[in-house]
Amino acid sequence: MSSPSSRERRPSLFEKGEASPNALQLAEQIASFHVNPKTGNIITDKVTIVGAGQVGMACAYAIMAQGVSHHLALVDMQEDKVKGEALDLEHSSAFVRGGLKVEASSTYDVTHSSSVCVVTAGARQREGESRLNLLQRNVEIFKGIIPELVKHSPDCILLIVSNPVDILTWVAWKLSGLPKERVIGSGTNLDSSRLRTFMSHRLVPVWSSMTACGVRLRDLNPKAGMKDDPENWGELHTQVVNGAYDVIKAKGYTSWAIGMSVAQVVRTLLRNERNTHVLSVHAKGLHGIDEDMYLALPTIAGPVGVQKIIALQLTKDEEAQLQKSAQTLWDTAKDLKL
Ligand SMILES: NC(=O)c1ccc[n+]([C@@H]2O[C@H](COP(=O)([O-])OP(=O)(O)OC[C@H]3O[C@@H](n4cnc5c(N)ncnc54)[C@H](O)[C@@H]3O)[C@@H](O)[C@H]2O)c1
Asked: Which atom of ligand 1 lies closest to the CA of 75?
């Protein structure tokens, strides 16, 4: 029997010459391929993020750390900054299962053939500036971004994060020429998480046993969330609405939670996980909405974009409020110069 020292060392693939550069390239490609189960087409997991600010980089980090994509392209008009961010991220490649490739530029060549393009670029409000003026400035920014993204990735899904997200998703749809199903906004996916977080603060001791027994909050407190609710669950609504403002007041911007939220949506889009997220989708014709507008609604989306918008069971009053929201958004959007 041969001793370990005398045992012939197995040559590595490189030494045996089995892995030519082409084979390595192929392995790299296979690692980042998924198959669209509906069409059978191969899609890559390449994701572009435009805007390498607080939100864009939190999205990039979450997408990378969760292994949602192994190939990122970052674009920002601040070339030095975006290149620095890309290097910093790519240096963590050894800690990421499957490795990581990060490209960065102030132009759009690096974005070619992306499956999902996330847009977080936006202008910050100037002192005394009206929201409409800020919005028009963001429209001008989008005019420089959206056609470039579509030119380099004509089959991509656009995922808009910049605020105001519903209106800018509509703007991106108009500027892109893509089918409405392929343009999606981050909607209120994050607000849903905020609601669950605030609920868990109240319910941690009993939550798991309640859900395990199939008990719902309304079974214990039929007035939960109503005006005369003795436990005042309605206060959660205020907490959710103020959630972003509380964070911005304390640290100047929001980043980590929106990054995680976007990573979750991108995973769903790439992997066809058929999860339901509350995303900004084209809402005309739903719940009596007449406006050509995007609104946040529960949506199932995948590699082809929006697959299904879940019909909500709304009271007349709730439906009227949704229609009013659509009207308010449209009143602003219709005056924009596209
Ligand atoms: N949808 C949501 O739930 C949600 C949550 C948080 C923030 N946001 C929005 O995300 C956006 C970004 O926020 P932030 O804190 O990262 O801002 P930020 O100022 O830190 O980053 C914006 C980045 O966009 C870049 N940029 C501006 N114009 C550009 C252009 N024409 N081309 C390429 N890059 C350009 C800037 O250089 C900057 O790096 C804001 O509109 C914010 O309101 C949305």
From this structure: 33
Neighbour order of strands in the sheet with 183-185? 101-105, 71-75, 46-50, 116-119, 157-160, 183-185, 276-282, 294-302, 305-309
- From CA 3, how far away is CA 300, in angstroms rounded? 59
Split into its structural domains, the chain has a count of 2
- CATH classification of the domain holding 109: 3.40.50.720
Minimum CA distance residue for ligand 1 atom 5: 258
CA neighbor of 79 nearest in space, from 107, 110, 48: 107
Look at residue 121 and tell me if it is in a domain: yes
Q: Is 52 in the pocket of ligand 1 (CB under 6 A)?
A: yes
For ligand 1, atom 8, the nearest C-alpha belongs to 162
**158, part of any domain:** yes
Q: Does 179 share its domain with 195? A: no
The domain in which residue 243 lies consists of: 188-334
Mean pLDDT is lowest, of 110-114, 169-173, 181-185, 229-233, for 229-233
Strands 294-302 vs 305-309: parallel, antiparallel or unpaired: antiparallel
Cβ within 8 Å of residue 60, ≥6 positions away: 49, 52, 72, 74, 85, 89, 102, 259
Structure ipTM:
0.99
| Ligand 1 atom showing the smallest separation from residue 191 Cα | 3
**CATH code for the domain in which residue 268 is found:** 3.90.110.10
Q: Is residue 113 part of a domain?
A: yes
Q: Residue 175: inside a domain, yes or no?
A: yes
pTM above 0.80, yes or no: yes
pLDDT tens-place string over residues 208-238: 556 556 666 677 777 877 778 887 878 888 8
CA of 250 to the centre of ligand 1 (A): 18
pLDDT digits 0-9 by tens, 261-271: 999 999 999 98
